[in-house]
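Researcher: Please translate sequence to structure tokens.
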Amino acid sequence: MDEPEDERKDKVNGRTGASRGRGAKKAVPDAAFDIWLRRGLHQMFDDVAREPIPPELLRLIEQDRRK
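Model: Translation complete:
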């Protein structure tokens, strides 16, 4: 009885990961979407991420760490 409940239910119902929609067919579109999203986010936000962090914000972060 050490296995997770989902695995026990799958054994009882005779299902596998592929039959629950986790097959390779969905992985390819998901990977393509992930690449598209990553490129788009980099294009939109890389310049902002490269900006220096304002000293006041750094001070607030350091104060919070000390708590």
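Researcher: Any highlights?
Model: The two ends are 43 Å apart (CA to CA).
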